[in-house]
Amino acid sequence: MINELSSAEPVPEGISGPAPIAGPWRPPRVLAVANQKGGVGKTTTAINLGTALAAIGEQVLIIDLDPQGNASTGLGIDRRSRRYSTYDVLIGEAALRDAVVETAVPRLHLAPSTMDLSGLELEIGQARDRAYRLRNALAPLNAATSGAVNFTYVLVDCPPSLNLLTVNAMAAAHAILVPLQCEFFALEGLSQLLKTVEQVREQLNPDLTIHGVVLTMYDSRNNLSGQVVADVREFMGSKVYDTIIPRNVRVSEAPSYGKPVLVYDLKCSGSEAYLRLATEIIQREKELCAG
Ligand SMILES: Nc1ncnc2c1ncn2[C@@H]1O[C@H](COP(=O)(O)OP(=O)(O)OP(=O)(O)O)[C@@H](O)[C@H]1O
Ligand SMILES: [Mg+2]
Q1: Residue 155 three-state SS
Q2: Ligand 1 centre and the CA of 19: distance in Å?
Q3: Which of 252, 262, 265 to mutate to test the pocket of ligand 1 (most atoms within 8 A of CB)?
Q4: Model pLDDT for residues 83-111, shown as the tens digit of each residue
């Protein structure tokens, strides 16, 4: 059952705390969490990486671009509080900022989705700007706005498909973050994903890069997991993050309470891994931006 969080609910030490002193303003970095394979940990990564980045002082916006709405329910945002959704934003009936809601985690915000999103392709499939709807919606965030949250990271949770929604995410993103589950068919479909990234780069977004590949649901008791890690590292080289997310039951329990695992159990192995991933991503960001 979904436990609806009230903003008064205490947040564990390590997640709460005062906002850091703001550095010089910079536009948000937009990362699309994408893999057309279902159930590989996209939403779990969007929620928990978002929470970890917020915990270390970033202002984070998660955009739920999946009609399943798992990022929205996983963050305890019930349907009634979704006044505007990403569907309204993409069809042009609401500004992105109007869809943004706060979460129980300080500095973590969400633009929720609803099932309506599944009909988007039929509605805007013929529009000339159909692939740029999200990019256009994000444009106002590229200017510092007084009295509003100035996001430093935007994470887009994509659906398990290479459809118009995922293309919108890729056209809007600086980089793609690819979760890969440590299972036998991990690499299957990866070449298709890379091909799509290449097409988006050629046709829609020349600056798009692969930020990195994060291995998820690693099970140290299973020999296969180790083999998958070796295969993926051989295929993707340094694009694979050092951090590996372990299979951890606390990670899978947390969404049913409407909480990120970092709030549900800060000390579990899953939370620790997502904190390490956030640090690694910030480090890689510095390298990417410097390069
Ligand atoms: N590290 C983990 N340990 C244990 N369970 C996990 C872990 N990561 C994800 N899961 C569980 O695996 C399932 C799939 O994860 P998730 O929903 O994040 O995948 P997804 O790629 O977003 O799926 P979809 O393609 O349907 O959007 C969920 O039940 C989730 O709780
Ligand atoms: Mg998902």
Answers
A1: strand
A2: 30
A3: 252
A4: 899 999 999 999 999 999 999 999 999 99
